[in-house]
Amino acid sequence: MKALVIAETPLAARALCAGARTMADEVVLVAPGVEPTVGVADKAVHIDVPAGSAIDDAYATVNAIADAEAPSVALVEPTRRCKVLAGRLAAHAGTAAVTDVIEFADGLATTMYFGGVGQRKSRPTGGLAVYTVGAGVFDESAATGTDVVEEAAFEAPERALRVTGEKDLPASDVDLPAADVVVAGGRGFAEEADLGLMRDLAAKIGGECGCSRPLAEGVDWMPKEAYIGVSGVMLAPKVYVGIGVSGQMQHMVGVNRAGTMFAVNKDKNAPIFKQCDYGIVGDLKTVLPALCAAL
Known about the structure:
- It is a single chain.
- The chain has two domains: 2-152, HUPs (Rossmann fold, 3-Layer(aba) Sandwich); 176-294, Rossmann fold (3-Layer(aba) Sandwich), CATH 3.40.50.1220.
- The protein is built from seven helices and 14 strands.
- The chain has helices spanning 10-21, 59-69, 80-92, 195-205, 213-218, 249-252, 284-294, and strands at residues 2-6, 26-32, 43-47, 73-76, 97-105, 108-113, 118-122, 129-133, 149-152, 181-185, 208-211, 239-243, 260-265, 278-281.
- Strands 7-6-5-8-4-1-2-3-9 form a nine-stranded mixed β-sheet, with helices on both faces.
């Protein structure tokens, strides 16, 4: 049995290849438009996407690789571009992609639906099972493989996307999926300067800073990579600390698999207190300095 892994980032490549190794005898990593991670699969296939072309259009090449390798399962990193490749691959194989898998057990994939309100277990019926899998499902440290890298020529589709321009985004060093401890801020932060209090706490406990949607897409105080939630990143850290986070489902679905959850909110009726293991009712401007002083 053979497994195909499609990933853009090294962390996801390692984790998904480790998971694929439990499902198949041979693992092939496909790296579309990025340098392949080596030592995690039996071989890596690099697709050199030409300047002016979109990685999304690498689907024709990905489909050709899948035809040649004939895998029974494909694990895909849930980035925007890889989701396109997953959907195209599933359509090519005459099946449907199972998205946002949070667990594999007994041949079934557990996924969330209705924005995380419910869970369901699925098993693809086609010859190729295509899954998008988020962080925390597999242990990346278990990945093994070779340094073999093959090149696959980019095959432009008949109706290719036209890149009309490019804009460099501000550099971000946020890597929430790799963090064991995540400290997230929400609407309780009234001023951007107050985020320094959250960053001080994160530094004390060795955590990475994230946020709910308003801070990343409303006021642009934090990078998009820091946004946790149903349309952001889905995490499973060992520890989650929500500060000024109300606890709405749209955000909490991104961290509801955390090992231990803490919350700080001045509203004693905030929904987050019904989901956390430990909570402090108080103003973050008072609570956070006190916590830092005590640590």
